[in-house]
Amino acid sequence: MEQKTRRWVLISGALATTAIVVVGGVFLWSGSRNVVVVADDLPTKAAETPAQVASSFLTRAMSGPASAAVFTDAPEAATKALEATRTGMGNSAFRATVSTVGPTPAADDNATELDASLSWSMPSATPLAYDVKIPMVRVDGAWKVHWVPTIVHPQLTEGAFLTFRKAVAEGALLGRDGSPLTQGTIPDGLYQTITGTVGDVAGVDGWEVGITAGGAFTRLFGKDAQQGQKITVTIDAARQAKAQAAVDAVPQGAAIVAIQPSTGEILAVAQNKALAGTNPFVGRYAPGSTMKIITAAAAMNAGLVQSGTAVPCPAKATIGTRTISNAGFGHDSLPFHTAFALSCNTTFGELGSKLAPNALPDMAKRFGLGADWTIPGAETNTGKVPAATGDQQVENSFGQGNVMASPFGMAVVAATVASGRAPTPTLMRGKATEANDVAAGPPAGVLAPLRAMMREVVTSGTAKQLAGIPGLAGKTGTAEAGGGDEHGWFVGYQNDVAFAVLVEKGGSSASAQNAAAAFLTG
Q1: Rounded distance, CA 315 to CA 328, Å?
Q2: Looking at the domain covering 3-159, what would its CATH class be?
Q3: What is the pLDDT of residues 339-394, one digit of tens each?
Q4: Domain coordinates of the chain in residue numbers?
Q5: Comparing C-alpha atoms, which of 267, 280, 247 is closest to residue 418?
Q6: What does the alpha-carbon distance between residue 261 and residue 417 come to, in Å, rounded to a whole number?
Q7: From CA 426, how far away is CA 423, in angstroms rounded?
Q8: HSE-up of residue 396 (Cα within 13 Å, Cβ side)
């Protein structure tokens, strides 16, 4: 028998649009899409040899499975299997080389076997390449490819197919509930600060090729994903949404910061578009009567007064050179806890004048106001309470003068009252906050009366419009902002959520209380 060596090279892929057959230097253009065929010593006669049939089959295998299947002895099974692999491999280009070295089958031979080399293009320069056997049988005098799954890959079984897929890198910026934290979920400036701190957390996807069988995937070849980071931001998505909705409903600039007292985790940071030029973490405002939380603690700690001590609360009083007045009310005498609930300026101005110069700044820092932390993902400034004497001390005692606070700082104060210690604020789990200038927590003896007084503010004091909110404790504040404008404050806690609400030029604390109610009740 005549010894022959034949070689057919076929290329199929989603990027090719025509088929080329090279015969003795002549290019023949075929209508088959996604295929390029290169053949050496291709028979010039019409007779269909096994190699020709195998060549015709592989030419069409990934460009038109049904048209390839007609060259097999099981068209239906072949079509189904080839379609599955074509779909599974997506845009990977397919290349096949068919060759036979040995005797040409005799006229009365009914079976033979060809060698073929197959390869698939991969995202890297290295293709997935392997060899297969193509069994050929004579059916009714014509050669056919005897269909078996191993023609596509040596490890394929019935019902299995090749699959190309991404190897997805794990890594994401997540909220505390595990859902993705995306831009727009929190104020843009805060989002930019967080992402600037952690960088690209997503990682780089890889890819893999394998065999899918019965829903299971067996990897054959691929490039591993470069895993990213999973960073959990402490923001609570539901509370953040409520906080944002609450400030968006306010026409003036408004902000809310919420902290979990038990952990120090920051739960929500919201500001509306009208709050321009600053942010809730660093904006400095006169805290108004919310400062009375600090003054009350300092006065009780100094032994000047206790919760039930009777104190004067005149409608107007001259203390030093300053004339102080209340908001249209006065009392000859009332318990200190009631003076706190009604927010009596004259009572607190008098107490402030009797405190040592460092009493207010020292106590403020024990509640976190004036303390400093380096918090990964956020630039913060709680505020400042300078040492003072005389008239300045009087004004500072009820939150005017040169006392300043940010909504973040006042949320820390409220969290300290609730937990009994200054929390360590955190924004990203696993990213430790560094304490730079932080004092020990407040004296234990002032906490119980202070909590009771803040509860009284809500049940019968200046925030009694919020009395229907269970367990709420807080302190209202109105702070002069210059030009006759006044900022409105409400700070407090409910269960394990401490918060501060600020409304710029709100005129009174009423607007801040309304925003707090919307935040707490939704």
Answers
A1: 7
A2: alpha beta
A3: 999 999 999 999 999 999 999 999 999 999 999 999 999 999 999 999 999 999 99
A4: 3-159, 172-232, 237-275+284-462+475-521
A5: 267
A6: 9
A7: 9
A8: 28
